[in-house]
Fold:
Amino acid sequence: RTLAMLGDAGYEAYAPDWPGHGDSSKPSSSSFTYNQQAYLDALAAFVDKCGITKPFALVVQGYVLGQYGLAYALAHEEQISRLFILNTPLAVNSKLRPELAAYKSPIPFMRPGNKQFDGTMYNMMGSPYAMMEADAMTYGKAYREDPAASAAVSASMEQLDFSGLLKQVDDGFRSWRKPSLLLFGANDPFVDVKNPQAWLDSKRTSMRLVTATAKLGHMPQEDYPEAIQDTLESFLSGETDSWAPGQVVAKMTKKGVVNV
Structure:
């Protein structure tokens, strides 16, 4: 729905599934290493294939792939005009959510390995709302139908150095100058709003944080896309550049999120 609303507003928007996820191909780890560089190279190839030549606004969200999106922005800063971050753990002391932390267990037999990943529950657990059945089934479809999808999760987690990735992103964005907006749902059971607050302490004033008093969870774009649309469009148009640096508390109205 977010893509549809952006299209209706006149924007050209893409929401690609990363390799190994969703409807994208799920190559074996022998042909795709599922590490940070492989994901960044894949995103660069996607941007090139789409014929995107002008700087674009990048929207990221999530624990691991969201971090890789941020790492892509640092590696290709000349391509990025604006950065919009939704409920992504940013503080260097952030921990993986339990379903992902299990893959990094120090006890080998406690790791899920290639066991079927429950994509339905993974996405449902972060929301304060009951998810539509059709949406829930879509999230879990790839893992139910193709064992390679669960193998891709396992391979990605095996390659992940989460603490090192957090530090890389934290250090890199200390000198970031592009207009950036962090919009965090306050009802996220995994990422507390104090997380981005702590992260922003060492960042430039080109970054602003919006926290919504409405019930928005780990994936605000899925929980209530209509609620963030006005803020997203205001950011894309440059209207939010005049906001005072720091944190803005917002509430949800029938017209979306507004400042309070």
Remarks:
- The chain is about 40% helix and 15% strand.
- The radius of gyration is 18 Å.
- Confidence is low (pLDDT under 50) at residues 252-260.
- The beta strands are 56-61, 80-86, 180-185, 207-212, 246-253, 256-259.
